[in-house]
Design a protein that fits this description.
By secondary structure, the protein is α/β, with parallel strands linked by helices. It contains three helices and 16 strands.
Amino acid sequence: MQLPQPLTEGRLIKRYKRFLADIELADGSVVTAHTPNTGSMQQCAVPGHKVLLSYSDNPQRKLAWSWELVDVNGHWVDINTHRANQVVEEALRNDQVDGLHGYNVRPEFSYADSRIDFMLEGHGEKVLLEVKNVTLCCAEELACFPDAVTTRGQKHLRDLMTAIDDGWRAVIFFLVQRGETEAFAPADHIDPEYGRLLRKAVRCGVEVMVYRTIVNRHVACLGKSLKLLL
């Protein structure tokens, strides 16, 4: 999918209060940008990193600038968590996800007392699919999730296991934003309960799909699938 244009380059001074970041632009001026990411952003929210910002002239916005990408180890990382679902939805509708071709795609499906990212229907079956945005590396070329303890993520895994018992097909989809990665594993050192539940979910029949994104100054789209290490 196309990224907002044009994007303006700057350097991160600091991220604070979760949704705010101070950025120094090329002319030396400092702007405060909205940060569309609720995670800890370890390895991404590092002072001095090169970033790309979008600008909006909408008078109803509190902040005109939004932080979109950050350069980590020579790769652009998309930190906008809202766009992760859009990238996956585009790939699903274009039949780019192995094993999920030819399905009708419905975003934001209510199941139990949760909101699951996608419900897919086709080939005589229904599929629940939950997307997780991955920006952390635990080792060289190894992406991992989560970057902080996530009770919400744990609940999603329990919901997917319940869905299996109810006759659904269920998928947890990790969208990895780190261009240097070749494999994915749960971040047991950060949230051991999430890792335990992920392994249990796999034993119960929940499918795990891991794909890396292709990100540059103009587009973000689905790239290659990565190896899963459990």
